[in-house]
Amino acid sequence: MSHHRRLSRNGVSPLDDFAFLSRQAESPDPDAVGDEAEVELLAPEGWDARNIAALVALSDAQPGDQLHAGHVLAELAELLSQDGEVERDELLASLLHREASPVAALWRGEALLAPIARPVIGAEGLTEAINDLNAAEMGQAAANVGARVLAERLEAVALACVNCDGGDDECFDPRRNRALARAVRAARRDGAPDAMIERAIARARQGLITPEQGLFSTPPAPELPDVQLDPAFFEAVEADARLADGQSARAVMNRLSEAVWTHGRPALHFTPAQPSQPVAVVLNLARFVSDQALDEDGLAYAARLWGNVAERTSGSVVLTGLGAALTALALPYDSEDARERSKHILRIVRSESPAPVSLERPDPMATGLVGAESVGVHPPAALDAPGGRSFAFCVSAALSALPEDEQKIARRHALGAGALAGHTANWITQLENAGVDEAGFARIDAALSDGVPLRFAINRWSLGPEVARRCGLSPEHFDEAGPRLLEKLGVDPLEVVAAERYVHGAGRLDDCETLSPALRAVFADPAPEARLAMAEACEDVLEGTASLELALPGSSSIEELGALIVSSARRGLTGLAIRREGDALYDLLNTIEYETGDSVRRSVIAEERVVERVVEKYVERAAERRKLPDRRKGYIQKSTVGGHKVYLHTGEFEDGELGEIFIDMHKEGAAFRSLMNNFAISISIGLQYGVPLEEYVDAYLFTRFEPAGDVDGNDSIKHASSILDYIFRELAVSYLGREDLAQTDPHNYDPGGLGKGVEQEKLIREADPTSLISKGFSRGQLPDNVVMLGSRPKPGKPEGAAEGSGFEFDPKPKSGGVSSGGANVERLEEHVVNYHGDPCPECGHFTVIENAGLLGCDACGWAGKV
């Protein structure tokens, strides 16, 4: 097939039409750290960070590589073209303009894999499938919680045995070992089977403390097949008739709606599923809109050009950016004009492309390369471009006809000013009068520019205690105010909301009074029914599925979801997938205790004692970002979670506090790895701005998602319910001393553990201390006078401590059984001591010794009667 030139020129390389700028991007290699983790490349001017990251991932760049984006794309065009120089140059020019991109397999020169057909059932087998789904989901949650509780109880039983200093006949007999008796009672109270308790004691006798293998091996949930519902089923629902298996059609429909509302599954088909070809090329429709007009000739040419590539690879062309194209054309999504224009666009592509055309979910890396701002039939996902502070391409195109000053007003309305400067309010004047200087407001604006909410940007560190005193706020109230500091200073909550909107914008344009009603309608969030109508219009042209996926707000009811299913079937859609969003549930749960003031102290039941544990810790530090030293301490922990290799890198401040983390993973796609990398960056920024590590631990502990399962390579953690659960368990154990989150007993590796005697508590282990110091970090300057010390020596009994008790106690037996009668209690010289088992009423240590009918504490010197 012959091609004429559209974007390229005869005798001129398409690369000559672009200016290339030096950029840096992170390497997709999870093992790369520091400067070696960056890839240097020359990218076309106008490419954003998302395009560059996709190019680096698709080209399989290695750490330290220096790429020229033009050369990489030129090699790809050469690989894809088979029809001469013109086709090669046009493919290269189209790639440079980000009009289209082949999927990752074609970048690597691999064959496309046909999609796997999913099993489909009808309405008759739906009830049994839903029962299996509910049982699997609830059973997995119950098994996960039960396994964790059971493991803790069985390990407590084993520890009670091995920490005992008596003989075998005493340590493994709950009638003679009080700690073991308490652990057994707690295990039975929580439902542990007697056989497992007996085996835990028997395993402890052999030195095995960890629970039995397979405890955390929760079987995977069975795959739920898709469901096909024909018109006869919905007629039966409306008539409340019965199905062929005797069940009420309306009852089955209600069960289906509840299952989809709860789990986001199963996917629904209203017509028989048709086999589809694998995706070969992603075409961005929004690139063919300029000055609010569609370049029909350019779109038709690109459809032929890339349709040939897809046809040669036995693949299909997936369209993306349809909603963004409608926005760039300034057409309201929920309008007949938008639906007709969509049908017109699809007719052009379908008539010109020799390969099949669809609106399926596109390849994420190819989507990133073309910079798609919408997928499927949906409108644009966001108003701002990657990085914020500027509009997305389609939004800027829709506003391009407005005067510049009106565009600025719209930008300020939607995205905000990014700082308090320019906002007039009485409370700002009061802060100035109270002593907040330019440096203080600069600290506040620096936090606001990073996206920090106003309530958190204005805090005790950015204002200072002197300002609070002048505003009439006591130091105690200053500490307790938290994010409500402005209200404590007397600022009306409505004024806080107004300031927040001024700084960060409304996040929407449909309520911007500067815009005309017609233009505001362009940016209105369409209702689910409007998306169904758009999918119906697109499927009429494609004669296939639009792969519609709806995400309903968390406030949606089961009845509303059921009505959407019925509406989709009546419109004749081929299928539908629905899920309900969590309605900010996780943020709500994380703030319940903080908002109610219960986050400082909490009663925790441990065994049979009630203790109080501090779960929130206020750390005083400067408001500005605390910088890490250029040469910093830390460690690297390599582990495998559920068969997925995870590298955790930490960096510390000079005082040893955690200041940054890096998370590197194998076996994951570029999108997931990039998400984890950016998640680690956000955690690091929070730590450097003073967010306590305890808050992150409480927020992410026990999160549950794949990969999960057994942990190999970590001596303290043996199972995790997710990658985040593992990471924050490790950080809590290493930096917060949260041994309660470890799944092995630290006493196993510490000869100074309970029950080994006071003398042995002085040294943790006889090891070369220089083995724990990085020779590279210290540049070979290893000290020769370092020793490893355990816990601090117990203080001696104060003089007169036993006075007034009516008797004296000496825990060290004398010949003849006569006690020394001295005021101070002498310590045992023997290394093995049989402690009584109950805690000392004075200091709480389990170092109480019984001798001649008297009790004495080996730690603090307390003495008393039995």
Structure explained in plain terms:
This protein has 866 residues and is α/β, with parallel strands linked by helices. A five-stranded mixed β-sheet has the order 5-6-7-14-13. The protein is globular. α1 links the parallel β2 (38-44) and β3 (66-68). It is built from 31 helices and 24 strands.
Arithmetic mean of pLDDT: 80
What is the beta-strand fraction? 5-15%
Q: How many individual β-strands?
A: 24
**Distinct helical segment count:** 31
Give helix % range: 25-40%
Which class do the helix and strand fractions yield?
alpha/beta
Q: Strand order, biggest sheet?
A: 5-6-7-14-13
Secondary-structure blueprint:
Layout: E1 20-26, E2 38-44, H1 49-58, E3 66-68, H2 69-80, H3 85-96, E4 100-102, H4 104-107, E5 120-121, H5 126-162, H6 168-171, H7 178-189, H8 194-205, E6 226-228, H9 231-239, H10 249-263, E7 268-269, E8 279-284, E9 289-290, E10 293-294, H11 296-312, E11 316-320, H12 322-328, H13 336-352, E12 357-358, H14 364-370, H15 393-398, H16 404-415, H17 426-434, H18 438-449, H19 454-457, H20 460-463, H21 465-470, H22 475-481, H23 485-488, H24 493-504, H25 517-522, H26 528-542, E13 549-552, H27 558-571, E14 575-580, H28 585-596, E15 601-606, E16 609-614, E17 636-641, E18 644-652, E19 658-665, H29 670-688, H30 693-700, E20 709-712, E21 719-720, H31 723-735, E22 848-851, E23 854-857, E24 863-865
Helix pairs in contact: 1-14, 2-3, 5-7, 5-8, 5-10, 9-10, 10-27, 11-13, 13-26, 16-24, 26-27, 30-31
